Amino acid sequence: MQTTQLTASDLSPLTPAYDSILALAPYQTGKPIEELTREYGVSDVVKLASNENPMGCSPRVTLAVTEQLGQLSRYPDGNGYYLKQALADFNDVNANQITLGNGSDDLLDILARSFVGADDAIVYSQYAFVVYPMLAKMQGATGIEVPAQRFGHNLKAMSQAVQDNPNTKIVFIANPNNPTGTQLEQKELYQFVTSVPSSVLVVLDEAYIEYSPESNNRALLDEFDNVIIVRTFSKAYGLAGLRVGYALSSVAVADLLNRIRQPFNVSRVGLAAAAAALADQDFIEKTRLINDEQMRWLEKQFDALGLGFVKSHANFIMVEVQVEMEDITAASIHQALLEQGVIVRPLDAYGLPNWLRITVGVAEDNLRLIDTLRSILTED
Ligand SMILES: *Cc1c(COP(=O)(O)O)cnc(C)c1O
Known about the structure:
The chain has helices at residues 8-11, 33-40, 59-68, 81-91, 104-115, 131-138, 155-164, 186-195, 220-223, 251-260, 268-279, 281-305, 330-339, 363-378; strands at 46-47, 98-101, 121-125, 142-146, 168-174, 201-205, 227-232, 245-248, 308-310, 316-320, 342-343, 345-346, 355-359. The chain contains 14 helices and 13 strands. The chain folds into two domains: 11-55 and 282-377, Alpha-Beta Complex (Aspartate Aminotransferase, domain 1), CATH 3.90.1150.10; 59-280, Aspartate Aminotransferase, domain 2, CATH 3.40.640.10.
């Protein structure tokens, strides 16, 4: 992957819209299984790097997708009528409060483009989702990173940062947070929202809400027009490959976002699959139960291996690799796991070089991870 710094002279005589664009590092995705097979010749790869659902998706999705295959020459419904109706029912909002996105990343991008100019600021937490600082750079705006508190958001300090920077347009909050798995209490979040001016958008990124139903802050929408909730079908719903997300907001904000988004930003197949996936809440329930059970099992194994971790409320867990262990580093463990066909996520891009983020798999994936990890840690 190309990760070297791009300079103005590389592009010269062309110039990007903002200098900050030159400082963007390409987003590092979890290594695709196909790439590992190509590079190391390992088959039987276990990918625990991108917080995908290890159980796949609801069987209802297959049927819904198949039904669309004869229609691929036709544009999708640009308004996503049926999916929006289903989401409106599910979330108890009106359909005109919904914006659909090509994954929730698309919505985060649309939000930044809609509200943030070069003289503005975006506030986010240290160790929060890496896309937020990237969006500030893309808009030529100021990114304000507020130091984390026990790996989670320090809402008091974030509120102060908003006060100190009157040009703040958006605050991004991931709840539960990726990559640390921390969650915020509803009361705390409520206080935060009341503490910021109503001219500042508070974006609650609830990508892992299905794993932590108590983090559902849908109720805030009824009281605050500056709150936006962003959700995705990529994680618990198991549709990461199709790219569907949605935002819930006030009618006016949704109206604006719907003008900025591309007219056909969700595909025909994506719309049908998401509606079918949403209708199968038994699948989500089963996903959550298995995740909880496997999370407890993994915590026990990490304890037994003497590896520290941060208590997680999502479908991944952040594990610390002790620096005292001389020649063993998070990077060397990551590499050794790759060579044995297990993909996890290094966190250098988050400023957490001694940590690995590991997605909770199904039982056999987790067993393979722990067996491989044990053999790496005990060999010398
Ligand atoms: C995975 C993730 C997203 C983006 O998911 P999409 O696939 O673009 O819907 C957004 N926010 C957080 C915190 C995530 O972990």
